[in-house]
UniProtKB/TrEMBL annotation:
Gene Ontology MF terms in the entry: RNA binding
Keywords: RNA-binding
Record-given protein name: RRM domain-containing protein
Composition bias type Gly residues, residue spans: 87-97
Gene3D superfamilies: 3.30.70.330
SMART domains: RRM, RRM_1
């Protein structure tokens, strides 16, 4: 792993908190730190975060066990943090793949349509 013991969690619900992530991931080992990334202006979750474990093996166990699982009603994607090219193209485990949805942005009222999962979008 590029950042020893640190994992990326994508697809989080906007309501998921650090405590919720810690509760879901603590069964795999001692957690050093949990960060749910938030918008600087609104404070709202951006839908992804990181968990840093004391032990690299615990992080690997958590990645294998939690990738594709449900957390707060959302199918999450768990991967090594700092991976230069994020995997694209669908979910993992029992999560549905693909799909279409529209996303309206507040800036300029532009509406964009995307195919696939939200974690494949770079905004």
């Amino acid at each position: 792993m590029e950042d020893e013991g640190k994992i990326f969690i994508g697809g989080l619900s906007f309501e998921t908190t650090e405590d919720g992530v810690a509760e879901a991931f603590c069964k795999y080992g001692t957690i050093e730190k949990v960060d749910v990334i938030r918008d600087k202006e609104t404070g709202r979750s951006r839908g992804f975060g990181f968990v840093k474990y004391d032990n690299v093996e615990d992080a690997k166990d958590a990645m294998e066990a939690m990738n594709g699982k449900q957390l707060d009603g959302r199918c999450i994607r768990v991967d090594a943090a700092g991976k230069s090219a994020r995997r694209g193209g669908g979910g993992a485990g029992g999560c549905p793949r693909g799909g279409r949805f529209s996303h309206s942005r507040g800036r300029g009222g532009q509406e964009r349509s995307y195919e696939g999962f939200a974690e494949n979008i770079v905004v």
